[in-house]
Each structure stands twice: as C-alpha cells, then as structure tokens.
Amino acid sequence: xxxxxxxxxxxxxxxxxxxxxxxxxxxxxxxxxxxxxxxxxxxxxxxxxxxxxxxxxxxxxxxxxxxxxxxxxxxxxxxxxxxxxxxxxxxxxxxxxxxxxxxxxxxxxxxxxxxxxxxxxxxxxxxxxxxxxxxxxxxxxxxxxxxxxxxxxxxxxxxxxxxxxxxxxxxxxxxxxxxxxxxxxxxxxxxxxxxxxxxxxxxxxxxxxxxxxxxxxxxxxxxxxxxxxxxxxxxxxxxxxxxxxxxxxxxxxxxxxxxxxxxxxxxxxxxxxxxxxxxxxxxxxxxxxxxxxxxxxxxxxxxxxxxxxxxxxxxxxxxxxxxxxxxxxxxxxxxxxxxxxxxxxxxxxxxxxxxxxxxxxxxxxxxxxxxxxxxxxxxxxxxxxxx
Length: 387
Fold this sequence. Notes:
This protein is mainly beta. The chain folds into three domains: 3-42 and 245-295, Immunoglobulins (Immunoglobulin-like, Sandwich); 46-234, no CATH class; 302-385, Immunoglobulin-like (Sandwich). Helices cover 2% and strands 50% of the residues. The N and C termini lie far apart (60 Å).
C-alpha cells in the first residue's frame, strides 16, 4: 500500500477503527506548544527464540489451567505451531504433520495444542517470531502464545500469523488465525486440534485434521465437556492485541501527508488539527485511530488577578510530562526587572512579586522549551495586568 495514500484509502478500504489501537486522548494547548502523540497497540509480548523444529520451555502460564482433566501451570513451545504442557523432548526435529489422535511413534507431540501445526521456520533471519503474554485479571486471565508473520520452511515468502489462547476458569482454548499461507512443502498439510498425553485421544477442527488448506481470519474454540472430551466449534475472529515491537508498523498522518513512521511524534500545531495513527500488525491486520489537538486562539495577553476565580492567573497551556524535557518562563516589568520565573509549565503567575501585588501595567514574558526530540523553541510576548 502506498503510504501516502493511506488516509484517502481509509474511506474505501477495510481498515478497522478499533479499540485495539489508540492514538491517545485529545489535548488542548496554546499555539506552538509541543505535544507528543503516542499510538499504542496492546502489550509487547515476551519473545521466544528457537531453532528450526525446536522445542523451548518451560514458561509460566500465569494461572492454573485444566487440560484433559489435569492441572498445568507451565507450557512448552514447538517451533512448528504447537504448544504443550510437558517437555516433548523427543519431538525436537519433528516437522511432519500427522492426523490426530496419533498414539504411535513417541516422537510426535502429545499433551499439546496444535494451532496450527505445520512446518514453520522461526529461526529464519535471526528475528523473533514467537512470543507470549498473560493478560487480564484473575479469575479471567488469558495466556496468549503467538506466531507473528512466521516464515514457512522451504517457502520463506509464505507466512503464518496465529494465536493459541488459554482462558482461565472456563479452560477453553482458542485458535485465532490471522493467516496461514500456501506452501507446497509437505503437501501444504496442517493440523488444528488438541491431543492428550498418550495420543489416544485427539480432537481436531473439522476439515483441518492433516489436510491441505490456507485461510485468513479464522478461529476455533475447544471447550472441555469432560476430562476426556472437547466440543469443537467455530469462533469469532478476535486476535488479541499483543505483538513484538519489530512486527508492528506505525505511521502518523496529517491532512493526508505522512509525518512520521514512529510510534510517537512531536507536533506543534498553531491551529486545531486532527491526526491519524495507523498500525499494521504482523504484516496483516490494519487499524487506525484519530486524535485532535485543540489549539486555543492565542496566548492570553491580559488577566485580572482580583480573586474572583475568573482569569486570575497567567500561564502557558501544555502537558510537560510527555512533551517537554526543559522549560523556562520569565516575566519582566517595564524596567526589565524579573518578577516571575518557573521551570514548570503547570505553574502560573498570580500577578505578584515577593508576596506583593504588582501594579496594573504591561509585562513582557519570554518562554523557552525543549521537546523530547531535542527541538529547541523560544517565544515571547506581552501580558497586561488589569486591576
């Protein structure tokens, strides 16, 4: 997609305005005061590095999960799209998909979830493609294990993005698949399902038990109905908002023009402006959100410090915690004497000097600030005390 056409295409393409991406809250400033806009998409997961056909673990689930009637608190990850509740050391090097149940050779994964199982190569290019995170609060937490735009072995331009999700309390399992591309290696066969510790019990998604298939935005839910059986049914597609930082592309737009390819951007508008944040997740799902910076018409040029609660103080409006690293405001009387100084943009002048009211007159203010990107800006003007 041409990055300079994104804002126009928002009107005709199925990008999603979705709570998963936030451009941040609207803001109000004086003209030219810097504002840092930051887009956020969920959590950055914990990366899992592995070899081709490797098995890694154990990792903490974060809660107790019941799987085929037994309690588990740890999990292992197989490079080829499966996670398990026991080590499966003999499964290292296994890449050949099989139908389930499969009680046979002691090498194929057992006590596991296939979500989907096919021959991926997460060692390619030295990147991290697999990661996990436990989200939510007890008793409704979820463990998410995700393969993000992971190359397929012998078809490195074909990739898979999917999540295996364990839900606390209900002990349900979800397989959320953003995409599984075609690869003619090993007949393009893949498996979605669950299998117990012996391999004698296995439940697969109908039509996806060692068959050739590709898909985009598909989901299945596995609901335990007894210690030895699961109900398998389609589920609504809902990829959870976690991802590794290098698989998440951010862009910012103003009036149809791209202004940044970073997660954060500093802007200094002189008039009210709406900005669009755009994110592409794992080279697949796309989201956008908007944020408006409201600019007051001007910095006040007069105030009335009479204690009536209306226009009693003079201040510059902006939010320093995320926008300004250094700030200084000085106010001088007509003879050049410094009557007020602050390094905090939240501070305001009440029209006094050393505890005494300053007379009604015209005063000169000088402001200096430095943004988080080391941009140095200065400004000056006049303000009148009216008594």
